[in-house]
Amino acid sequence: MKNECLTPREPSVERGVDESRAAAEMRLSPRQCCAALVITAALFYVIPQAWERIEPLQIGAGYRIPYRLGNDYWQYERTCRAAVGGDQTLLVGDSVIWGHYVSTRGTLSHYLNERAGSERFVNLGVDGVHPAAMAGLVEYYGGAIRGRRVIVNCNLLWMSSPRHDLSATKEATFNHPALVPQFSPWISCYRAPLSQRVGAVVGRRVPLLGWADHLRIAYFDSEDLATWTLERPYRNPLGGLSAALPSPDEPPSPPPDARPWTAKGITRFTPDWVPLDESLQWRFFQRTVRLLRERGNQVFVVVGPFNEHMLTEAGLRGYAKQKHQVAEWLAGEGIPHYVPPALESDLYADASHPTAAGYAELARRLAEQPAFAEFCGEHRLRPPRVGVSRPASGGSWTVPRAV
């Protein structure tokens, strides 16, 4: 019996296979390849822009970046563009500006608006964005901030130890690694693999990748689609896109203890202050301020207010030196600024965050500063109107009624 498996194929059969394969192949001419590349590149930019029409962004009274979207830099860039539509003054900084222990009705921007009598101050703070990350945030995603009045917070907590300063040589984890320089200057404690570093650099320049991150963070619990689907096999991924964006008044998770620090059993400490001339974070703070000024912004810097009541005598001496050097540099650069004295002890929730009542007091002190009044120009502040709500000492995470 003839073994058909070992019988060579007839030439006609081979020709038929080759002809079928050739028919299935599609060869593009050089001109067609160029056209395909142009169309693909266009889609990379058109799709994110089209999504902005599908997902409207409302910057209303008391708006701030929702906590869950703190790593959503595509959304931050979009928020910056929306925030510069009027004559508002923008507040840039970390959780001190964002208001880690308070609701949107207890932030510094809220109490400044209360004194202004209108929504003239916009909160562009991001929780946990240390100076090295803030420099990247402003450089790569804050391009719309041009020709504005900008209040920048200088939180010296980030220079209170080599680890916070990112100048330690031992590997350490920290917030917002995608925003820091990936190659130059080199950050010794940052040990990300090459693929992650390259991905961060490319992601800053390709809107489609930022938009994909936005969908992942906002609608898929910060998980990639494969992981989300495996954990929820019976749910339609497209159904998640119908959910609303997180509320600006949504608290951090878990919600922080908004009581004054004295009620939490926190003890005094002595920070291992990093000298400013050796501080990595200080260099990045300077870089942020200079970049904002190069873009034609009027910059006003608020230093602190750090909780000096939490410091030992040695820690307080180190902090006084840091404050003095910061003020000297700001004065030398001709940058209007305010270095407030410490608030009352019970107006702090921890080492650097005021309570709602603390923010109200800071706004009052700012309004009394001639340099700040000159910075505000025609938008000078005044005492709040009679009948306007006063803050509770710890703030609240309930959404309040409009005043």
Describe the structure.
- This protein has 403 residues and is mainly α.
- It has a single domain (42-379), classed as SGNH hydrolase (Rossmann fold), CATH 3.40.50.
- The chain contains 15 helices and 5 strands.
- The chain has helices at residues 11-24, 30-54, 73-83, 95-98, 108-116, 131-141, 162-165, 194-205, 207-219, 225-231, 237-240, 280-294, 313-332, 356-367, 370-376, and strands spanning 89-92, 121-123, 149-154, 298-303, 337-338.
- It has a 5-stranded parallel β-sheet, with helices on both faces.
- Strand 4, helix 13 (313-332) and strand 5 form a beta-alpha-beta unit.
- Helix 2 (30-54) runs parallel beside helix 9 and helix 5 packs across helix 14 (356-367).
- The protein is globular, with a radius of gyration of 27 Å.
- The N and C termini lie far apart (96 Å).
Short description:
The chain is mainly α and 403 residues long.
**SS elements, strand count:** 5
Figure out the total of helices: 15
Cα(first) to Cα(last) distance is: 96 Å
Compute the gyration radius: what is it? Answer: 27 Å
Strand content: 5-15%
**Biggest sheet record:** 5 strands, parallel
Q: What features would you highlight for this structure?
A:
globular, Rossmann fold, disordered C terminus, 403 residues
List strands and helices in order, with pairings.
Blueprint: H1 11-24, H2 30-54, H3 73-83, E1 89-92, H4 95-98, H5 108-116, E2 121-123, H6 131-141, E3 149-154, H7 162-165, H8 194-205, H9 207-219, H10 225-231, H11 237-240, H12 280-294, E4 298-303, H13 313-332, E5 337-338, H14 356-367, H15 370-376
Parallel strand pairs: 1-2, 1-3, 3-4, 4-5
Helix pairs in contact: 2-9, 5-14, 6-12, 8-9
